[in-house]
């Protein structure tokens, strides 16, 4: 019995279809992490950047996606630039291109923002960035398990995600993707047993694996890895197209009904090309923390306060286990909260 399961050993426990990530679990492109934040740190510190190099990102990044680059700003003098994302698939490539300078080295954005659920046209954005010579990094914490994806088709250089969110896996699991093109350039920050291709202390020799799993230093929790495999298998049994369609239908219904309630502003794009299974809204002249507190304690509904970029809104994440009855309960609760002001 293995004490620790590594990514290449785990291919046999991953689903045979449904989640197209399986296609890249071979060939040394993907490694296990403990969460998306760890993956983003692995990526940021594995890219050779120097003082004055620019990293371009949106103002809506999750702290786990932004802080690794801000840390490099403090340590190395890397420059972090931000832009305000637009609401349509056409807006954002234009926004990105307008903010690229001769010093820009990396484009690091959320595939779907954790704030408003904005879905970026990832393939188009990556093609644009690569035409300008940029390294592309996608934070996919709010993507994998929500919609079908194919990283080879998208063409990004790096991708990170969590196992415990839309994948429905255990906490303490995640995945990081390193494209074949980037593997020789990329260097691991933390290393140990399983990181090496050749290691000999007596000869002072250490050669890293030329694969993403060079980041899998030390022993992993086998139960968590197997749990992630089971979660992937579960979603694949249903089918990711079906999962995505379910979430989209729930989200469309919620967005439409929220727009009918006075004093509520929906921040998530109505355009299905730019939206997802996330719905974010604000209540006029009310603190988002107050609304979230009442939903939890009085109505037993868990939502997520959105404080990033001082948006101060409420986020609802709709997955396959949610239903229209629950959405109607939420709408009724919001109506009561607004009326009792």
Radius of gyration: 21 Å
Work out the strand percent.
15-25%
Q: Name the helix and strand elements from N-terminus to C-terminus, one letter apiece.
A: EHEHEHEHEHEEEEHHEEHEEH
Mean pLDDT level = 92
Say which CATH homologous superfamily of the largest domain is assigned: Type I PLP-dependent aspartate aminotransferase-like (Major domain)
Overall number of domains: 2
Under CATH at level 1, the class of the largest domain stands as Alpha Beta
* General shape: globular
CATH topology title of the largest domain: Aspartate Aminotransferase, domain 2
Helix amount = 25-40%
In terms of per-residue confidence, which ranges show pLDDT below 50 for 5 or more consecutive residues? Answer: 15-26
Number of helices: 9
